[in-house]
Structure formats: structure tokens, C-alpha cells
Write a structure and sequence with these properties.
The chain contains 1 helix and 41 strands. The chain has 494 residues and is mainly β. Strands 2-35-40-37-38 form a 5-stranded antiparallel sheet, with no helix packed on it. A 4-stranded antiparallel sheet has the order 1-41-36-39, with no helix packed on it. Strands 5-34-33-32 form a 4-stranded antiparallel sheet, with no helix packed on it. The two termini are 20 Å apart.
């Protein structure tokens, strides 16, 4: 009897119906594809022994010159709005500024006083059920070796100068009622939504974050964007700083005195979904919008997404302000974590491999994350309030299990086939088990065979027009799944 290779391309396809994903992977969690092989996402282990209260909504790692490597974590919550730093000794130090507050949850909004100044039309009644206020998320960056931070709702800009005995302090003369910060490549500290104006961007004098009043003798300044929505996030990229609103994208380019910066609208109707939904990788920036993914590499373009229907069909729009993105540079991926329809907090993720251009999805209860950068492993704070090092080979994935399920595979050109053997293609046999799911018609009753422990060959007996494979990790290891084969013969129609 002939053998048929099950050569399934990398990445998930989950747009339209399940049958439309035939010959592709359809569902997965905690797996990735690299160089044509499927492998597990690395596991995680706790860093330190501290459990944080509140919701972690911001993280940053940086090197403090000769004073070591630091991680900053911002949290929000009733009584738990905090700012911590973690040193290489894994000691968590509370550097929270006095009196800081933050809105920990997205809430239905509307009526007088909700929007920023000059947003909306005066006298127009707002429907509170159709408007949702943003949950507060920390904006963190480093000013040289010092940490700078801002929390919407509090609005002040803070700086921490690496002294564990001293909390972060307000930057003198800086704007108030801000929604975020970014430090540009030219060493300007920019304040987003400055002075309570959601469309205003202000910046200090070059190399002097306490001088904000423009004069002919300095380069401080401000600019107000003509946009349909407020500023959400700013991300520095090669030679420019991108400014995202809910509706537009602008590029800020340094031109020197007297104007200091030029501003160009580079995208319209492709705004960002949250204040943390953009990430810079190499020479481009990618972000998640209300209905799709976008990239700027000199031009704004929508990224074709093979899982767009699945992601946005199971997306809690009322809590979209909690979406966050980060770059996993080791694997050329950008991750977006988002709340599914049944969750108020991020519980799922979608990744884009920008080097090989394929997508994956999965479940992970993480609230904030950052790339490895100056540290060995990427970091995440999970829903249990613990800080974890991620992407560790041979380490478990908490209580979760990596798996992948293919779409329908038609062995005999859409006709019935008798399948008798499965010949696995594993790096180490026994790391995985396989279930075979069959149907006679796309919407017919599904039958499940197995799970089978992999042998060479593995005996299976089934008769179907279409079959799918579900591959599940059974042993924590750095496994690989390549191109298995099945032995079959043509079947009858009865």
C-alpha cells in the first residue's frame, strides 16, 4: 500500500470554516514553527519568591550603567497601584511615588467630564453603554540610566535615580495630566497627552528633562495633532518616533532648531487598540488595531493575518485597553496578548513570525511581558502575580500543555481511504502522542481515534474522507515534529 507524507506548512490558518484550513494547522497552543519544524514554546520558571498584588500593566528592563541590571514593574489596583524595581539579586523594592492612583479596570463611560478637552461635540449626549474608559497602564522608559514612568489618571511624570531607599519622584517642571512618556533617540523626554489634552505632545530641552518651557535658547516644545482620537502610545524606531492615536499614526522626525521636530501623518484609519499594543523590531514597528494588524517600515501596511477571524471573533472589546505587545527577538516573533470574549484580563495570545511570515495562537494568562534584551530570558508577570522567566528549554509550561491540531487532510483526493499505519517524524520518539480525528463530510460527526503512543510504525485502523491530527506533548523536552507519513489504500463508499 502507498505511503502519503503529511507535509503541513508552518503556522496556523483559522479564517473562515474549519474545512478551509485543510492541509494546514488549525488550532494550537504553546507551539511555534521554525525552519519548517514544529517545536514547543519554551517553558517558564519563577524569578524570585515575591507574589505581587494588583494587575501588572507595564514592565521594562534596562542596564543602569555600572549600577547593574534592573527590571521595573508597574501595577494598578485598589490599594495596589505600585511601582517596583527588581535587581539582579531578585529583591523586589517598592519605589511607588506618594499618592499615586490608577483605574485598574475598563469601565463603561460617558456623560460630562469623561472625554479629554476638545474631544467630541459639546452638548451631544453620549451613550454610556457604547463607550468604555481605558484601564490604566504604566508607560515606562529609561532616561539614560534612570527610570521614567507615567500612569494615566495620575498624569505626573516620575523619575527614579537607582536609589532603593528613595521612591520615584516627580520630574520638576514637567507637564501634568499626561497619559504616557517616551524617550527619543535624540534624548528628548516626550509627554503624551500633555496638560490634559489628549492630542498634545510636549517635549523637554535636549538632555535636560527639567526644562519644558520653549525659548530661543533651548529646544523644548509641543505639538497638537489634528487627529480623530487621543494619543495612545509612542514608539521609537530607526530615525523616527511613531505616535499612535486611536485613529491615526504620525512620524516625528528630528530636524533641529527652531522647530525641533517635524510631524507627518503616515497612516489614517489604522489606529491602535491600546496604549501597549505596538512593538518595535529591527527596522519596523507592528501594532494591533481594532480589526487587524499593521506594520510601519517606511510605509503603513496591513499585515495579512491567517488567524484574524479567530482572534477578533473571540475578543473582549470592552477590555481592549489591556492588550499588550512585545518582541520575542530570539525567535523573530511579535506577541500580542489579549482578553478573549469570556475574560476581563488577557488570557490568550497571537504571535507573528515576521522572518518566516506565519502566525500562531494559544492560551496564556499573562498581564505584561518584555524581551530578554539586557537579561537572559524574556520576562512575564502572570495572573498569579508572579514574575516568570520564559523560553527556557526543557522546563514545564505551568499547568498548560503544548499541542497542535491540523485542519482536514484528504489522503485520497477527497475520496474515502483506509488508513492503517502512521509513521511519525519526531526528533526523539515518545515525546508526543497523537489523536486522529475523522469525518466523512466537513460538518459531519467527528470520530476520535487514540491517543496513540508513537511507534515506528504506529498501527491505526480508520476509514474516512478527511482526517486531522492532534499532536500533544506528553514529555517535557525540546521536541520536534516534522513530516509524518500514513499508509493507506483507496476505500469504498459504503
Amino acid at each position: 500500500m502507498p505511503y502519503a507524507p503529511l507535509d503541513i506548512p508552518p503556522g496556523l490558518f483559522r479564517n473562515g470554516t474549519e474545512y478551509q484550513s485543510r492541509g494546514r494547522w488549525y488550532d494550537a497552543s504553546l507551539v511555534r514553527w521554525e525552519n519548517g519544524e514544529m517545536k514547543p514554546v519554551g517553558g517558564w520558571q519563577q524569578r524570585g519568591a515575591t507574589t505581587l498584588a494588583g494587575y501588572a500593566r507595564g514592565i521594562l528592563t534596562w542596564r543602569g550603567s555600572s549600577l547593574g541590571i534592573w527590571t521595573a514593574i508597574g501595577l494598578v489596583g485598589v490599594g495596589d497601584t505600585k511601582l517596583y524595581v527588581v535587581g539582579v539579586d531578585n529583591v523586589f523594592t517598592d519605589i511607588t511615588p506618594t499618592g499615586i492612583v490608577g483605574q485598574d479596570q475598563a469601565i463603561a463611560a460617558g456623560g460630562y467630564g469623561w472625554l479629554n478637552y476638545d474631544e467630541g461635540t459639546y452638548g451631544t449626549v453620549r451613550d454610556a453603554s457604547s463607550s468604555v474608559g481605558f484601564a490604566a497602564t504604566w508607560s515606562l522608559d529609561h532616561w539614560g540610566q534612570y527610570l521614567v514612568a507615567c500612569l494615566p489618571g495620575d498624569g505626573k511624570i516620575y523619575e527614579w535615580q537607582l536609589d532603593n531607599a528613595t521612591p520615584a519622584a516627580v520630574v520638576a517642571n514637567a507637564p501634568t495630566d499626561c497619559t504616557g512618556v517616551v524617550v527619543t533617540q535624540e534624548r528628548f523626554l516626550m509627554a503624551l497627552g500633555a496638560d490634559g489634552d489628549g492630542r498634545k505632545l510636549a517635549w523637554c530641552d535636549q538632555e535636560n528633562n527639567t526644562l519644558w518651557t520653549p525659548a530661543s535658547t533651548n529646544q523644548a516644545g509641543s505639538f497638537r495633532f489634528e487627529s480623530g482620537g487621543p494619543i495612545m502610545q509612542a514608539v521609537k524606531t530607526r530615525g523616527q518616533t511613531l505616535i499612535f492615536t486611536t485613529t491615526d499614526v504620525f512620524a516625528a522626525t528630528y530636524i533641529g532648531a527652531p522647530l525641533v521636530y517635524s510631524f507627518e501623518r503616515v497612516g489614517s484609519s489604522n489606529g491602535i487598540v491600546s496604549r501597549r499594543a505596538a512593538a518595535a523590531a529591527d527596522s519596523f514597528v507592528a501594532w494591533m488595531g481594532p480589526r487587524g494588524f499593521w506594520v510601519f517600515d517606511g510605509f503603513v501596511k496591513q499585515i495579512p493575518c491567517d488567524v484574524e477571524d479567530f482572534v477578533f471573533g473571540d475578543f473582549n472589546e470592552e477590555n481592549q485597553s489591556k492588550v499588550f505587545a512585545w518582541v520575542n527577538s530570539q525567535y523573530n516573533e511579535i506577541w500580542w496578548h489579549y482578553p478573549s470574549a469570556g475574560s476581563a484580563e488577557p488570557d490568550r495570545y497571537v504571535t507573528w513570525n515576521y522572518a518566516e511570515n506565519h502566525w500562531s495562537c494559544g492560551a496564556m494568562p499573562a498581564y505584561t511581558a518584555c524581551d530578554r534584551g539586557v537579561i537572559r530570558y524574556p520576562l512575564m508577570v502572570h495572573s498569579d502575580g508572579k514574575l516568570y522567566e520564559h523560553e527556557i528549554t526543557g522546563v514545564a509550561h505551568g499547568t498548560l500543555t503544548p499541542y497542535a491540531t491540523s485542519g482536514p487532510i484528504e489522503i485520497n483526493a477527497g475520496n474515502t481511504a483506509y488508513v492503517t499505519k502512521l509513521i511519525p517524524d519526531e526528533k526523539t520518539q515518545g515525546d508526543l502522542e497523537v489523536e486522529v480525528l475523522t469525518r466523512r463530510f466537513p460538518n459531519g460527526t467527528q470520530q476520535i481515534y487514540g491517543p496513540y503512543q508513537m511507534r515506528e510504525p504506529t498501527s491505526i485502523r480508520l476509514n474516512a474522507r478527511q482526517m486531522s491530527l492532534k499532536v500533544t506533548q506528553v514529555r517535557t523536552s525540546d521536541w520536534r515534529w516534522g513530516t509524518p507519513r500514513v499508509e493507506f489504500k483507496a476505500g469504498g463508499e459504503r
